[in-house]
Design goal:
The protein has 294 residues and is α+β, with helices and mostly antiparallel strands. The protein has helices at 2-11, 13-32, 46-60, 66-88, 96-113, 121-130, 132-135, 157-170, 196-203, 205-211, 249-273, 285-293; strands at 140-148, 190-194, 219-224, 229-238.
Length: 294
């Protein structure tokens, strides 16, 4: 029975066709070798060569030789091949540096396309009126100080300070060199055009608040800081306030441009975000505490 079925099979024309096709395929493979996949094309055209040449010239301040240009082209080909192979392997996925770089390129592209036009006088005036506090200038003090260290005093430090204050104001020559008076300290003996926050950063907030009311040109005090006592002579008190718009026009224009760019950037992002369905799932309070501890 089996022999009979086998004989019927080999006499079947379809079997003859399959055997003939397989033979032709084997013969073609032997003669021509294994089939080759079409290679990806990398074309370095004249425009790309000119760009490579321009980059070389900006770096080396001379045009490249033909051999150098060929080397630049080969290096570009190498970079392109490795880039394509890396993408094919998925090496660009989940890479924080690449993600941030692509984000920056998208933002730069949007900035190039949405560069705001120069503001009109009316637009600048409106922006200035709406942001007066942003451009308001702070008061500034220029002063000298003499430091008295409580750790160096054997008596009543405040009484010592009051006596020194009297001598300084009655004898101007005595205060000609404040560095030679008082105790040694790393604190500056003089600050010029300092704002209240700058003074507070060095001497403390309470010190900064009281000396701004000191009489100009005379020694006053003693004023207390976290370091000890100080005698202070305010040399100049520059009152702050709102400057004229014309006086700060370059600064005003810069801030206006920055705000317009940020608005355009946010609008661009919101238009992209609207195309996505976003599902943000925050952990519960217990999980959040656990993550914070870790």
């Amino acid at each position: 029975m089996i022999r009979h079925k086998f004989l019927r099979l080999i006499r079947d024309p379809l079997c003859h066709f399959l055997v003939l096709g397989a033979g032709i395929f084997i013969l073609y493979s032997v003669v021509n070798g294994p089939a080759k996949m079409p290679a990806d094309r990398i074309i370095i055209d004249e425009n790309q060569v000119l760009r490579l040449s321009a980059q070389f010239q900006r770096t080396w301040m001379r045009p490249p030789t033909r051999q150098e240009l060929l080397g630049l082209a080969e290096d570009f080909v190498k970079e392109e091949i490795l880039y394509r192979e890396a993408k094919a392997l998925g090496l660009d996925q989940d890479d924080l540096v690449i993600r941030r770089r692509l984000r920056q390129k998208m933002e730069f592209l949007n900035e190039d396309l949405t560069e705001p036009k120069a503001p009109t006088n009316a637009e600048l005036q409106s922006y200035f009126d709406a942001n007066r506090d942003k451009f308001r200038r702070s008061d500034r003090l220029s002063f000298q100080q003499i430091y008295l260290n409580p750790l160096e005093s054997t008596g009543d430090l405040k009484q010592t300070a009051v006596e020194l204050l009297t001598r300084l104001n009655s004898n101007p020559a005595l205060s000609a060199d404040p560095n030679s008076i008082g105790d040694v300290t790393l604190l500056p003996t003089q600050l010029d055009a300092a704002t209240e926050p700058e003074v507070a950063h060095t001497f403390g907030k309470s010190f900064a608040k009281v000396i701004k009311n000191a009489t100009i040109g005379r020694w006053s005090g003693p004023y207390e800081s976290g370091y000890g006592l100080h005698l202070v002579r305010v040399m100049k008190h520059e009152t702050g306030g709102l400057p004229d718009m014309a006086e700060i026009r370059p600064i005003l224009e810069r801030e206006w441009y920055n705000e317009r760019r940020n608005e355009a950037k946010d609008q661009f992002y919101q238009s992209l975000r609207a195309r996505y369905e976003v599902d943000i799932r925050l952990p519960d309070v217990t999980t959040s505490r656990t993550l914070a501890v870790r």
